[in-house]
């Protein structure tokens, strides 16, 4: 459980995050009072003898951690996650090439230079899959102001606009020091759920590869409550751990 033990939990002085993955609840707790309670889904065990293209799923790792950051997340492991959410996009109409604007410096670069596997057609198809084909009420206008079928910004990062990262704080100083390990698991939404929420479509959360999935609106509730601040204690409880009866909403 890292450097933190159960005696540090349920502090009457500062709020703490508790993820009960068996019950599918993420709680923001102050003392024994539940301040915010949202639905959250963790990972699931891999199916034996099943081949997974990128990464086999796993149950979210139980333990006590410290929040390090809440920011856009990039990884080369997932091709759609090599650009941060919200990166400006534009299409070269003559050559039909997709360009993105770099965060640092603001220069425009070809998407193919960073993600050669993804074509302009792939982006158009994914956009339609998420936001509809423009027939009837939809939310395409939010990201496609010029109506060319290509979003004006990158809205495909697998970890949503922001991801909450945390680490094992072995020396209990609430700082990410040399020798400590940032977890590969994190709290985030998905592009599919972001689209469904914007379109007003009812949806159910799904298991992850090991991360903790929440709804976009619930992510914002946690942010407003101050639950995602750096230095916050996060406890991921085991699948069989029940929410204690002494916690009160």
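^ structure tokens above, recovered residues below v
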């Amino acid at each position: 459980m890292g450097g933190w033990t159960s005696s540090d939990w349920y502090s009457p002085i500062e709020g703490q995050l508790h993820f009960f993955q068996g019950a599918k609840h993420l709680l923001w707790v102050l003392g024994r009072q539940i301040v915010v309670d949202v639905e959250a889904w963790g990972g699931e065990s891999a199916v034996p003898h099943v081949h997974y293209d990128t990464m086999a799923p796993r149950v979210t790792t139980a333990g006590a951690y410290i929040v390090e950051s809440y920011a856009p997340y990039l990884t080369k492991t997932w091709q759609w996650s090599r650009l941060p959410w919200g990166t400006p996009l534009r299409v070269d109409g003559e050559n039909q090439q997709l360009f993105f604007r770099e965060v640092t410096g603001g220069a425009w670069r070809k998407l193919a230079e960073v993600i050669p596997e993804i074509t302009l057609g792939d982006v158009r198809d994914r956009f339609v899959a998420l936001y509809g084909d423009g027939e009837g009420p939809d939310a395409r206008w939010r990201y496609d102001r010029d109506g060319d079928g290509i979003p004006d910004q990158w809205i495909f990062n697998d970890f949503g606009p922001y991801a909450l990262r945390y680490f094992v704080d072995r020396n209990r100083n609430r700082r990410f020091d040399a020798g400590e390990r940032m977890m590969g698991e994190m709290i985030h939404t998905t592009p599919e759920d972001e689209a469904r929420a914007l379109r007003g479509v009812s949806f159910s959360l799904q298991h992850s590869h090991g991360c903790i999935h929440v709804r976009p609106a619930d992510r914002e509730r946690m942010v407003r409550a101050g639950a995602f601040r750096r230095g916050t204690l996060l406890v991921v409880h085991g699948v069989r751990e029940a929410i204690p009866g002494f916690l009160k909403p």
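The chain has a mean pLDDT of 90.
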